[in-house]
Amino acid sequence: MTDKELTPDTPAEDRKIGVYICHCGGNISDYVDVEAVRDALVDEPGVVVSTTELFACSDGTQHDMIDAIKEKGLDGLVVASCSPKLHQVTFRNVAKRAGMNPYAYTQANVREQASWAHQHDREGATEKVIGLVRSAVAKTRLSDELEPLRFDTVQRSLVIGGGIAGLRAAIGLADIGLEAVVVEKAPEVGGWIGRLGATFPSDASGKEQIASMMAQIKDRRDITVYTNAELTSKAGTFGNYTVGITLHREGGDKELSLDVGSIIVATGFDSYNPDEGEYGYGMDGVVTLPEFKEMIDAAPAVGRLSYQGRPVRSVAYIYCVGSRQEAGGNEYCSKYCCTAAIHSSLLVGKVDPSIRQYHLYRDIRAYGKFELEYGASRGAGSTYVKFADDAPPTVEKLPKGGLGVTVTDLLTTSHEVTIPVDLVVLVTGMVPRENKSLIDLLKLPLGTDGFFNEIHPKLRPVETVVDGVMIAGCCQAPRTAAESVQAGLAAVAQSAALLKKGYAELEPLVALVDPEKCVGSGECLSVCPYESITMIEWDGRKVASVDPSTCKGCGGCVPLCGVDAIDLLGYTDAQMRAAIEELISVEGPIVEAVKEPVS
């Protein structure tokens, strides 16, 4: 820390702020005159360092910042660079390593908000960046020294879902010394993988993989598995949640209460269920990929591939059913199903190499090492037919029996052909599983695709906005079994980082109620999505109070308070007013356009 105590009342001239403008390797400097920005900040009140850097996030620049903070006694830091989502933690750590309060740091997002937005207006982009950086400096001048909120943690994690991701996560937790409790809604663990025979790329049996995991779990005393069970309540604070679990038993439901430090959600997925008539679904001989996989797994036992007692001599696979469909389906790619269908065709070839197989696709996405599966399938005799996005195949019954799949093949002469087959396999992808009660209980965020959403796909890939609640496996996005396991282990690592120390720290950027101003209307309670605000007795009257352990700092309660009794630490009214006033004081065409009232 600096040797003086900072408060919002500290005069601007007494602050010592360092400003670093990043070139971002050309992402910013190609469209913004960064030297002009540097010069414009030199005489800004409180600024004692104003400089440009090729890459502000590089190790060398970070060390230069630390040296400047120590040598010049900086008590504030502003970096004009990319989105705070990428490097806010990076530069807060720089401040912390230098002995400066990390919450006296502000990141000005001048890449996404200026250089990329105004690539054809260098002068306007430069003017806007000057305003954004001055605004950040104005906010930093009024920052005070905040400290992370510390809470004791429970050395136990709750895993919701007993599929391959959840079971592997439980084993990982036990191996690092954390107790794991697995809650599975179904009568048996295993999920989708537990139903499968050979899986790609190694042909390992899904059922055997789950059996192996259960054997490992039985050898570990720190893992408890509950089936026919579900999470029904959650209370407490981050790192020390009290959860209620309902066990559905023949003699009646039983309630169980546990204290846990983290929650890993691995509830899996559902398979897309085609509408009646979609690509012939509902006709005799039209099945989905999961149904077809069950047929293949049963085939070795009877020595042939059959459907309803009839031998199958030809198969047509129609790809992207329910995926990459803007109308009536899902726009996202389900990622795993191309390889799953290709692998199924290889398994069919092992049962009976004489079976004719046709793959009707828009694009094949057998990414990474799965390209080898694609090559092997073609080498084994499968025929691949590419159709246009706006001309999908049609399926109909043939007069002499069997099914006819009509498609225009783009790889040859673009002629329309009808392929007679015994079986049509609709290659269906993953869809989000219905979990409304769990979503409401844990306040889990959803992406536009309906799957659970992480904070950042690269930097915080398994964390949610709810502290201590992680997501793993296919509840987060379509992925393979191996990728689901990797996500489960990532959630284990994150749980260890939170729980192994015995305490956890939360950001202090939370709402704060001034009881002197509060009139006790209670209106703020209705807008808090995290139920962090309650009414308490204070000096003989009812006032609002915010629980900092559950508050997420969203600020939704601040504008609702008619008497300005609520402030958001780190983003106080005074800080935001100063930032806005500094921004609109900049002269130039872009700012003037923003100032004009909308008619």
- Note the quaternary state here: single chain
Mean pLDDT: 92
How many strands, which pairing sense, and closed or not: the largest β-sheet? 5 strands, parallel
Structural class of the secondary structure composition? alpha/beta
Please name the CATH topology of the largest domain: FAD/NAD(P)-binding domain
User: Which superfamily, in CATH terms, is the homologous superfamily of the largest domain?
Assistant: FAD/NAD(P)-binding domain
CATH architecture of the largest domain: 3-Layer(bba) Sandwich
Our estimate of the beta-strand percent is 25-35%
Which parts are unreliable, with pLDDT below 50 for 5 consecutive residues or more? none
N-to-C terminal Cα separation, in Å?
50 Å
The total of beta strands comes to: 32
CATH secondary-structure class of the largest domain: Alpha Beta
What is the number of helical segments per DSSP (H or I, 4+ residues)? 14
The tally of domains stands at: 4
Cα-atom radius of gyration: 30 Å
What fraction, in percent, of the residue positions are helical? 25-40%
